């Protein structure tokens, strides 16, 4: 009889843990959606900010705010091979792409795609357009 009671207690505990795991998964999904919305909004705000600053002015302002105060312009720094691969993909598409599209096409994790796109944007090799997409630098978005 003690074995049966022990098994019932274990089953109850497993159900409780499963319930809590479901809650954690739901919170994680909500956090991921919120992160994506914030990231898209941030890209839009950055594009809006850059459109208000004369070409070349944004780099000076952002450079003044950087902790390193590195005098070497970001665009002239050499990019890592992984970032160059992402830049090449964006340029070959010839249109704005999402980080998910980059990750899928290159077979990399989504977070890695986001980070490489961010680095390519800082180096002014691609631009972050509205709605969290990234595209090639064109004459109509040089201020971004």
Task: Find the structural class using helix and strand composition.
Answer: mainly alpha
H/I helix tally: 5
Global geometry: elongated
User: What is the architecture of the domain at 42-141 at the second tier of CATH?
Assistant: Orthogonal Bundle
Give the biggest sheet: 2 strands, antiparallel
- Helicity level, as a percent range? 55-70%
Instruction: Report the radius of gyration as a whole number of Å.
Output: 22 Å
| CATH fold assignment of the domain at 42-141 | Arc Repressor Mutant, subunit A
Q: What would you give as the CATH superfamily of the domain at 42-141?
A: Winged helix-like DNA-binding domain superfamily/Winged helix DNA-binding domain
Global mean pLDDT = 77
**Which CATH class of the domain at 42-141 is shown?**
Mainly Alpha
Q: State the end-to-end distance.
A: 73 Å
Order of helices and strands: HHHHHEE
Oligomer: single chain
- The neighbouring-strand order within the major sheet is 1-2
What is the β-strand count? Answer: 2
Uncertain runs? 58-76
Q: Please report which band the strand proportion falls in: under 5%, 5-15%, 15-25%, 25-35%, 35-45% or over 45%.
A: under 5%
Please characterize this protein's 3D structure.
The chain contains five helices and two strands; from the N terminus they run H-H-H-H-H-E-E. It is mainly alpha-helical. The protein has a domain at 42-141: Arc Repressor Mutant, subunit A. It is elongated, with a radius of gyration of 22 Å. Mean pLDDT is 77; it is low at 58-76.
